[in-house]
Amino acid sequence: MRYLEERVSKRVVEAEAEADNKLATAASTTANLDKVKPTGPKKIDVGTVAAIGVAAGAIGTFVIVLMGNLAYIKLRKRNLGPILDANGWAMNAKAKFNVPFGATLSSVAKLPPGSRSDIRDPFAEKRFPWKTFLLSFLLIYGAIRWYLGFLDSYLPEPMHSTSVFGKWAPRFEAEKTEDSIEPNL
Hints:
about 180 residues; elongated
């Protein structure tokens, strides 16, 4: 197993060095483009552009596959130490675990009998209380309309603003003058 790991690691290093060389060559060529004398306008064929795209995709896929192999090799060691270390636990020794222990760590926890889960997130962003705001606005608007006497025609006499507030009602004077005017017969 160690031999396989070393071989794969060696191939990854070689492929990375080759890719770095290609990148350095392309960078130096691009940097020296202004020193090269143009021989005339060259047209780039669409097929050439497509071939370059396919080649770049193949190289990228190759690098990703190699990185995946490295990740597989590292995960295959089944060491819990780096995970605990990343979470703030100090580990001086390798904490290896087997398949049953790994299944225990990755299984879904069950709640004890008689307990219940709280699905409300206490750290979620608070939303603006539109319903409360709208209801408060409508109640205040209705109270102002009632106080000014605009709802008196819809309400029974004991609920008129002048009956409740008396002389402090805004329409008290207007209603008082309307009552004092008697029709001529």
